[in-house]
Amino acid sequence: MSDEGKITRRMLIAGIPGSLIMSPFLPTAGFAAGRSDTETDRLEKDGVTFDWRFDKGRFRARMSAPTTGWLAAGLNSSIELKDTYFVMLRIEDGTVEAQERIAVSSGHRGTGALGYSPVLGHVAGREELGQTHVSFVLPMNLPGPRNINLREGAQVFLMLAWSQEKDFTHHSAWRRHFEVTL
After folding, report:
1. pLDDT, tens digit, for every residue of 89-144?
2. Which residue from 48, 110, 111, 102 is spatially nearest to 80, judged by alpha carbons?
3. Which of 1, 43, 109, 168 has the fewest CB atoms found within 10 Å of its own CB?
4. CA distance readout (Å), 3 to 19, 31, 133
5. Residues paired with 93 in a beta bridge
6. What percent helix, strand, coil does the chain show, rounded to 5?
7. Around Cβ 113, how many Cβ atoms within 10 Å?
8. Where are the domains of the chain?
9. Does the domain spanning 47-166+173-181 belong to CATH 2.60.40.1210?
10. Beta partners for residue 90, in sequence order
């Protein structure tokens, strides 16, 4: 059951060559580019935005949601929640805390507990005016029981979620699944 969201393809995020233009909601490395050819794709739904792009063999993403609780973004080659690789992020005392998880049949577990090495990198974020904004970088191949390859043009299922609470064990207040072409 894939939700419909507004997808903007190839949106320019930096328009003046040689200038440093920050995103209006998250100044983080990889998205504050000073080149006019820097592009990203965006999905928007219910006040949640998820931007992604490819850069130097990496998948760069950022997410914004109307909460000061945790945010989560996951990817899977199937519409099922089971086997989805996802990251959960929150801001605690001005510091971003992140966990890598994989959905199993009875909830979700940390990737380390399942025998996978961590792959999440370049995590950043902030809270502002009741919104949480995060960014992160992933390799092109994700750990987990499914072969999830984040190459440009790949069809994947994107899971986005957020909670009103910072506690990672607290249930989501909002969760949607989208079929997207990267």
Report:
1. 999 999 999 999 999 877 777 888 888 889 999 999 999 999 999 999 999 999 98
2. 102
3. 1
4. 37, 26, 22
5. none
6. 0, 50, 45
7. 10
8. 47-166+173-181
9. yes
10. 97
CB count in 10 Å sphere of residue 73? 25
24: its two tokens: 């209006």
Q: Give one DSSP letter per residue of 3-60, joined into a string.
A: PP-EEEEEEES--STT-----SS---TTTS--STT-EEEEEEETTEEEEEEEETTEEE
- The answer to whether 14 and 120 have CB atoms below 8 angstroms apart is no
Cross-strand pairs, 36 = none
Tokens of 95: 């510091």
Three-state SS at 113 = helix
Place of tokens 């971003």: 96
The Cα–Cα gap between 70 and 138 comes to 19
Task: Enter the pTM of the model.
Answer: 0.81
H-run or E-run covering 166: none
